[in-house]
């Protein structure tokens, strides 16, 4: 099968031929229909040992081809979306990829794996494939949920405490995939105020329908604007989906001096400038697959079962319309477009959308 390797210095991608992987005892093998890029896909190779090149894809939707010996809730032919463990073999930039069952969920009937419609161009009619939103969900939603529930300690939707009104919530980077999914999760709870810091992605953030106050970071007055939005209310929870240093300094300036929590998503960064009275929640999605948080030597075994429960609920929430995928742009040439997509992410040219790829669009691929 075809698989894509991501290399760094400079950023480049290479399509290679590899054997179709076999699922482990608690894994499924998925025929990948769509895969999606995340910023970590170009960042991770920059921090690897030179020469250690792997398939960096972690997010997909497709059809189960085979199941491991201990798998009892999925079967061949199931339509699914899944997150693949980061920095491991058999990633999602490929014709087939593996995923643990705890980060795989069934796509409900109202979420198509792929639809079709006819378009007319110069009097000719063409059948065009329409991607589903499924591949935009698993990795980003799981990361956001870890930060939201496991690190910030926001009551989970099934908890009796979820009915309690929480103090204001600030999400820095509301149009990013992690920020947007954090907002969608906030919609399942209750807060006195939900404040989003964003820029050109405001229209999408507004469409989520949960933000009460907006702060435009481009005006250069974030701290004062946050204080104005809070209007004297104490803020104990903040999501920093940007993690650029400036962002968490802005949040530190408005969080309460006692009992505050902030979720961050790049464990390798130096957060020593954050005062000790603020509890930092380093969020590393690898913990849902039993991996320790790098640089923090922190292993969160409870995250494995948390992800299992979350992904079962995701199917239900999608079916009920309580949650939805992220806006996306389909790049045209399948795996051959991944390098271009990662470069766009690296250059900061992607806002309020995910870049996705249809494997069958890969030139020269005999895909059935």
From TrEMBL:
Task: Print the keywords alphabetically.
Answer: Oxidoreductase
Taking every annotated instance into account, which residue ranges of this chain make up the domain Enoyl reductase (ER)?
8-356
> Does this UniProt record's set of keywords contain Oxidoreductase?
yes
Q: Which domain of life is it from?
A: Eukaryota
Q: Name one GO molecular function term.
A: oxidoreductase activity, acting on NAD(P)H
* One of the Pfam families matching this protein, by short name: ADH_N
Alphabetical list of InterPro entries matching this protein: ADH-like_N, ER, GroES-like_sf, NAD(P)-bd_dom_sf, Trans-enoyl_RdTase-like
Q: ATP-binding as a keyword?
A: no
Alphabetized SMART domains for the sequence: PKS_ER
Report the family membership.
Belongs to the zinc-containing alcohol dehydrogenase family.
Which PANTHER family does this chain map to? HYPOTHETICAL OXIDOREDUCTASE (EUROFUNG), OXIDOREDUCTASE, PUTATIVE (AFU_ORTHOLOGUE AFUA_8G01420)-RELATED
Name-wise, this protein is: Alcohol dehydrogenase
From what organism does this protein derive?
A: Penicillium daleae
